[in-house]
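job 3f2a | input accepted
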Amino acid sequence: MKEITKDMKIGEILDACPESAQFFLAMGMHCLGCPSARSETVAQACMVHGVDADGLVGDINAFLAENA
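job 3f2a | predicted structure (68 res):
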């Protein structure tokens, strides 16, 4: 996976890059295996957890770039 967007589903991101789970766990999203969590977009999850979606996407994309 080269880059994510905030419109991507969390399950899609986790399937392509399991290491990205650390970012979702750090924001307080501890239900990553739950079907409803996997079907949420990054933007939806961030809204529910009070996290800046652009910041999270930037952090994950930086991680992906460093580990490509």
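job 3f2a | Helices lie at 10-16, 21-26, 35-38, 42-49, 53-66.
job 3f2a | closed
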